[in-house]
């Protein structure tokens, strides 16, 4: 486990850079940190729409939404989500939103 | 330009797929593609395909460890350059095939392969034992109950003579998977080696928050043994966690796959189960699933003598008793599974009796059976 300092906040992260304590430690400094390492230029409203959709769904259901649900709630097709988050909805958007690292045979 | 981490999307190439296989055809294969008349196995490991144009393609199949270094790949490339105009291929069981276009070129190729010690054993054709399809094991995976490469090496060493000969009733496919995800061919192989756990998962209440999506862990259980609970972590805080009903748990490890805070690997608990009788081909009988015959053998590193002995025993009894063309599963079903257990001397245990959902159809709803040593 490593600790990352960014913008005055510190975050516990795992080897893939996901927050190990989840949304407890999540704040806007984390978003700017992930934005830089994921090669995302500026945070647009569209980025925030995806991040908020993920967080809302996670708080309500305890899991990350399936890709089809994320597309439906945000209105972005998968292609657009990849344009916003080049690493994809799992490694990019979920990481930025402070969700747990995706598991299973990925 | 090289990769620029500051601009990861610049000059990025994607969605180009694999190169077209035709680019790598040996000339004789390219010329006779779709025109083959018949083939022969001239000796173990050597095949000859005859084309309607009169051309011949001679193939020499050699065993490979699947997990190989770039040095070994380069050595294979050197052999291919020297004998096969730079062409070679891998089979679906991870053997390597060198192809030449005339009989005269076969013996120099065989001599070259033999001159390199045991690196390139020729064989794997016809009614023998070819390569073992296997998985990651302790080399790379996080959910294994046993090793893959180590067990495969130990087993193939013992049954090596069956790789270089064609003396069995039919081909015997051996496969290994290091957990019951069964990556590969374990569920449909003549003899299957499978890593199994025997203890329920341990739950790390300190790490589960932020690491796991609890509903996924709950839904991952095939027996409904995982339940959500409020638990107390080591700091005395109440956290949302899960509980495992140990009486319902059959140690599949699915919950650990979904939730890293539920590890279950255990050096004494983990080991190997042996399944037999699967096949995928449709020849003579329909494809079959392999069935559990030995519920547990220990992980005895580095040579797994119990597993090796069990595989060899099944293979030898089958070789002696089965009819020509009969696969292990066809043989066991013809003589009856009670006879299979008697002939192989494997003790029949309660673990072989199916008790999962559709189990009823696997029980005997008939008076037809043979008296064997297992019925006292």
Describe this structure in a few short sentences:
Chain A is mainly α.
Q: Key terms for this structure?
A:
heterodimer, A: Arc Repressor Mutant, subunit A, two-stranded antiparallel sheet, 5 helices, B: 376 residues, alpha+beta, five-stranded antiparallel beta sheet, 11 strands, 24% helix, DsrC/TusE (chain A)
What does this structure look like?
- Chain A: Pfam families: DsrC.
- Chain A: InterPro entries: DsrC-like_C, DsrC-like_dom_sf, DsrC-like_N, DsrC/TusE.
- Chain A: It is found in: Cytoplasm.
- The complex is a heterodimer of chains A (106) and B (376).
- Chain A has 106 residues and is mainly α.
- Chain A has one domain: Arc Repressor Mutant, subunit A.
- Chain A contains five helices and two strands, in the order E-E-H-H-H-H-H.
- Helices cover 24% and strands 18% of the residues of chain B.
- Chain B has helices at residues 27-31, 70-83, 106-114, 149-158, 160-163, 208-211, 214-219, 254-258, 305-321, 328-335, 337-344, and strands spanning 36-43, 46-51, 56-62, 89-90, 96-100, 174-177, 191-196, 226-232, 238-244, 271-276, 291-298.
- In chain B, helix 4 (149-158) crosses helix 9 (305-321).
- The radius of gyration of chain B is 25 Å and the shape is globular.
- The relative contact order of chain B is 0.09.
- Classes of the chains: A mainly alpha (106), B alpha+beta (376).
- At the A-B interface, loops of A face helix 6 and helix 7 of B.
Task: Tell me the strand percentage band of chain A.
Answer: 5-15%
* Percent of residues in β-strands of chain B: 15-25%
Number of strands of chain B: 11
Shape of chain B: globular
Query: Structural class, from secondary structure content of chain B?
Result: alpha+beta
Low-pLDDT regions of chain A:
none
Average the pLDDT over all residues of chain B and give the rounded result. Answer: 96
Specify Rg of chain A, calculated over alpha carbons: 13 Å
Number of helices of chain B: 11
Say how many strands of chain A there are: 2
Going across the major beta sheet of chain A, what is the strand order?
1-2
